[in-house]
Amino acid sequence: MKTTYLRLTMSAAAVAVLAACGAAPVGSVSTTGAGTVPDPIPQASPASEAGLQNWIRGFRSRAISSGVSPAVYDNAMSIARYNPEVIRLDRRQAEFNRPVWEYLDSAASDSRTTKGRGLAGTYAGLLNQIENRYGVDKYIVMAIWGMESNFGGNRGKMQIIPSLATLAYDGRRGEMFSNQLIAALKIIQAGDVNPSGMLGSWAGAMGHTQFMPTSYLAYAVDFNGDGRRDIWSDDPTDSLASTAAYLKRSGWVTGLPAVVEVRLPQGFNYGQTGRSNTKSGSAWAAQGVRAIDGRSLPSGGIIAPAGQQGPAFLVTRNFMALRAYNASDNYSLGVAMLANRISGGPGIVGSFPRAAGSLTHNQKEEVQRRLNRLGYNVGEPDGAIGENTIAGIKAFQRRIGVEPDGYANTTLLKQLQDRT
Ligand SMILES: [Ca+2]
To answer: Does the pTM of the predicted model rise above 0.85?
Structure first.
């Protein structure tokens, strides 16, 4: 994984699984919000549907020899339909990159932080119980919840069995998805969920923290003791505890920060950067490396994801545990920064080498808020400048008599601030 740029993130547990399989992450998982009503499966060609049904008949003996009962197989696979949408998503060239700061702006945005702080209060008792049981920082668990499904708001509404069957039959990575399909069938067999209620994102990631079926089998827990490991319900209890269990099993060390933002001394040799080039905290300190907040340094490696013009971070063993969840430095950094902000911290203190005049994610949200306040109705602020926002900007620009180029930059923000 390059450190300066990142792929558009897909569900974390899914990436971990794909990485474990030696496959590249496949890009954004588009989900359409939580709920119990699954998205309808689009119409497939008769040949594709017949091909899948034939494949299902052939796959039966393998599933049964893997431990799935014939009755569970036949019942669950009776809802499998060829889903051309998942094939389209799987084949999409989704590796368009964006600068690390844009990713981190979005990961630890004001709106996500505010929502996370509110929910950290709502679920304070539960979060403390989970932290006590697993020894994993509750704000890290909150941050993963925020990153994976916007705190449960985007858990995915596609039926997992049809998606995985389609991907196993016709996907680029049939063997990996075949294994996920067998794992999904075992989850159904264990009685945790029924086939039609097993919903998630297009590539099989499920629940509040987007577990792939194999991750679920390995790590999911029944924290509320009702006999089911239920990551699909609106109640996030089992999902959040399962996430903590996953990190604990991935080597999380209680009380150790995952990331410490540092200031590097003049003349620092950047050849030493890299998460795997670990040194003791005192060895880094002897070179003049200092934590931004002045605390003593733990051992770890130093990463500078935007090079010497940007901020630097000391990353520890717990950063590696986050990478076990999703094998991306930027994802892990985003989780750590969102956790920092939800807990009341400042987020990243250093500044990235942004192009002059460009807006941060939070400033883009501010543009949208101010446009709404002026009556342009650009929708709920999300920091993504889309068609509605551009139309609103142009209308505003026409009103104030400047060139209506629809571009959101610091000049535009200033013009809005002056009028709202
Ligand atoms: Ca439960």
So the answer is: no
